[in-house]
Each structure stands twice: as structure tokens, then as C-alpha cells.
């Protein structure tokens, strides 16, 4: 199973980083519209944000092509990954998910003594959907898919995932984490929300943390069958973790399409710069369809992280299939140049 080298020994050094490329944040956010909305709404902080939550839900429902009862908001999608995790794994069981993948819901499941049935990704980094299907058994409480996947940055073609969900969701709930959907190539950018409209028990998560640049403001949502959301709400309250300024920021962000297209374009520019630079160093990076890149490094993750942090460049390191990898998030072009400079020194 893959291993992530912890950044924790360097946590105190994160604020001093010159290039902060370790959490797949969007360096351009929040949008000007979101910032203004936050300032304007501070004085409403004495009120609960029920009305604003409803307004945001209605906007998201229109965007996703569902009715409002298909949407649940949360302070970031992490909160909803946890809520779905808590409500599905209270009695243990198992979760079927790829290896490697994003660990949030798997860790929640494991804390309730559920087993992670880890299915290795294929050599080309695509999900092995046949093996995942075969791993499902009587004890499976949920199947988790993250597309594009984290930490690999790769995708499994949308049509294959659609077919998988269509079949599997009749037996078990399928959670599809679409945190990075907007960064995918347009022809691959197909959300699984359409399956919910077909009555399938698929739970799709989206976030304002990535393309909208609001990681610290905390808004995310899931789209699912009303019956699934009712079950979750029966056990945990949904809207009470939301704050009124974040809701206003999300509403303003949704209206600001230029900010989104600008972020996507700048991300693509940095991604292409880093890929070219890595190629010129003969490093075979993993093809990315998102806002970060994974590539192999010829040294252990632990000393690699230390040396990069010493140069004030924050990244992450993983051990996957006996190979060390660096995961670098796309920052500004200035940060990416600093990153390349540091990498060349450390690898040399
Ligand atoms: N899902 C994936 C795949 C992520 O990479 C992240 C954050 O990095 C999240 C969910 C959680 O994001 P947030 O809680 O900020 O919405």
C-alpha cells in the first residue's frame, strides 16, 4: 500500500515557504467578487445563514440540473466525505477504493473498524474497475472513486466510470469525488451527476476549494438521491457548519465565470511549463489532468522533503509501488520557477 511521507516535521515552516505547492490550492483565489461579498456580509454575522444556504443550494441545483433536494452543503467537501463516511461505516463493513487514492473517507471508514479493500491502479494509472467490481462483497458499505485521482493526477475515462457506477450503484452506493473536475480536458469533463437523475445511488462531491480558490473559506457540496441525503441528515446536521460569509463568497464565485476560466488557463500554462522542464531532465512524470503533477524521484521521500523545505519550497512525497514520488501543486509561474530551481539542486 502506498505511503505518504508526512509533512508534519515541517509544519511550523509552512508559513515561511516561498513556494507553497503542497495542498493543491489555487494561488489566484478567492476571486475579487468573492472577497467583496465576504466584506459586505461580515455585518450579517449575527444571523444564521439558512436563507443564504437555500439560495446557494438553488443555484447549485440549477447548475447541476437537479432539484434542490438533491444537494447538501458542507464547510468543504472534507466535511461531507466525513459525514458520508460516518453514516455509512458506523457498523464497520468495508470500503472498496483504489490504491493509491485520496484517503479522507477511507480513514473515516477505518476509524469505525471498516476494512479498506484496496485495488491497485493499473500500470497506466487508470482505475482497475473490473478488479474493483470483483472486490465488492456482502460487507461492502460503499465504493469510493476519485476522478481525477489524487495523488496520481490521472483520470479514468468518464465513459468507463459511468458504466461502472450505473451497474454497481444498483447494489452498493458509489461515492465519486470530483474535486478537480474543472481541470480535466474538456472531452473528459463529464460529471456523474447525470446518474443521480437516473435514480442511481451515486454520491458526487464537488468543492469551492480548488478551481474557485476558496480552500480556506470552506464550502463544498454533494449531489445525491434525496433518500440518501435524508438518511445522512437523520444522523448528522447538514447546514449548521456553514458560515454566512463563506456562503456569500460561494454565491458570488458561482457568478464569476471569468475567474474560473482564468484559473484553468493559468493552471494549464504552469502545468505545461513544469512538464516541459521535467522532460528536459529526463523525468517521466505521470500525465496530469489536474492542478498538480506526480513524478518519480531518485531518492527517498523523507530527505527529499527536508531538502526542498530547506529551500523554502513545500511539496509532498509518496512511496508508490516501491518508487518514491514528488507531488507538486501548480502555484503561480514565479513559484513554479522557484520549484524547478530547487528541484534541480536537490536531485543533483
Ligand atoms: N477530495 C480530493 C480529491 C482532494 O484532493 C481534496 C483536497 O485536497 C478534498 C477532497 C477536500 O477538499 P475540501 O475539503 O477543501 O473541499
From TrEMBL:
Gene3D superfamilies: Aspartate Aminotransferase, domain 1, Type I PLP-dependent aspartate aminotransferase-like (Major domain). CDD domains: AAT_like (cd00609). InterPro entries: Aminotransferase_I/II_large, HistidinolP_aminotransfase, PyrdxlP-dep_Trfase, PyrdxlP-dep_Trfase_major, PyrdxlP-dep_Trfase_small. It comes from the Bacteria. Keywords: Aminotransferase, Pyridoxal phosphate, Transferase. Residues 21-343 form the Aminotransferase class I/classII large domain. Transmembrane segments: none annotated. It holds the Pfam family Aminotran_1_2. One of its GO terms (molecular function) is pyridoxal phosphate binding. PANTHER family: HISTIDINOL-PHOSPHATE AMINOTRANSFERASE, HISTIDINOL-PHOSPHATE AMINOTRANSFERASE 2. Belongs to the class-II pyridoxal-phosphate-dependent aminotransferase family. Histidinol-phosphate aminotransferase subfamily. This is Histidinol-phosphate aminotransferase. The lineage of its organism: Bacteria, Pseudomonadati, Bacteroidota, Saprospiria, Saprospirales.
